[in-house]
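Quick one, T. Sequence first:
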Amino acid sequence: MPLDTGDYFLSAANPVANVDQRDLERLAMRLFERPDVRAARARAEIMWRRVTDRLMPADQMALFDDHVSDYCFKCTLVAANTDANHPRILRLYSEGGQWFGHKVPGAKWGGDNPNNAYRIIPVAAGGRYELTGQRQVEPSTYVTFQLVSNSTTSATLASLEQLDMEIDEDGRYRLTLDDMPVGKRRNHLQIPAGTLYLFIRDSMGDWERQQPDALQVRRLDPPTRPPLTEDELAATAIRNILSDVFYAYYAQRLFFNGPQMMTPPERAGSVGGLVTQQGSLGHFTLREDEAVIITANAAGATYRDIVLHDLWLRSLPNRDRQISLTNAQMAPDADGRFTYVLSMADPGVHNWLNPCGLHDVLVLHRWQGFPDPDAEAPSIESRKVALARLEEALPPAVAKVTPRQRQAQIARRQAAYDRRFAVD
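Structure tokens:
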């Protein structure tokens, strides 16, 4: 059903286009340009450069300024929505865009997934909160709610899958959060000491049709103090910018600790990922005359994707290049598995992954949601081949596309992506 536009929602079709998002982005952009925050950004740039300038290839160092900006604005966005006494909802970890009359900077980092709407709500132990949600006509494939205890949203204290919640026939639901145990309540999270945020992931397999849930939050008990001042929020942004470098660098190095192949699937929670997810990582160095063939199974997962990142662990340009594929966008092989080709030039394979001219890329394959306990376990394999011998190396009946079909594929991607920044 269309959203009621007015006091909160600013679009009948885009649930993220709301007053909280607009106002928090504007607040974060003001904080980002403060002299004290700019000084922290300069220090963070030095910290990053000291451990990377002789490590990274030249084409990756050319992206350094964009990486530092994305990283620092991510830290500032998180800080802007840190007041658990006066909670609001904020989407973050995304490519920049223009809407609400302003141009919001990018905030990609840490293996961001371009198929997700990531949102945070500040909550704290001792407080009582209510989150109301409305699933859309074409809802997200997979939604999770996590209580996290740090500014990188990587330390999970409690987790709830929407698959396990009670949802009304019209798609509405109510999630409560407080100090009380969960007990038999399916739509409740107990807030442990040290909690900073409710972290919500809407994973959308179909960009063209799906939209994230429409969310609103309120604190049920009276606030214990007035709203945080901009000086206080700036101090949090500075702390995030300087302290989060260490985890960000750790997450980046996870991909370097192995050979040029996809790793065996394993749970992601131990390294800061989604606790209900299994994932496989890869780091590939690619010549112009080489290709990497990656084949994975579906494993009965509700949601799957594969995404390319630069060596800074930022997803490659999301809108105009096929740098990722979801279960709704990828074509299966004849045997029901899924084969992807990573190569500098377009090989005419439907499931081509475009490295955007970079000779080093990081790859992340995810499986999320396993409703069938009897389904086969996630599996993946990869190998590098000469581009001239790609055809004979591919499995039988891999889906192909013509140049015109590729253009149509990208045009659909662009139109679907633009829905994320739509405002009526």
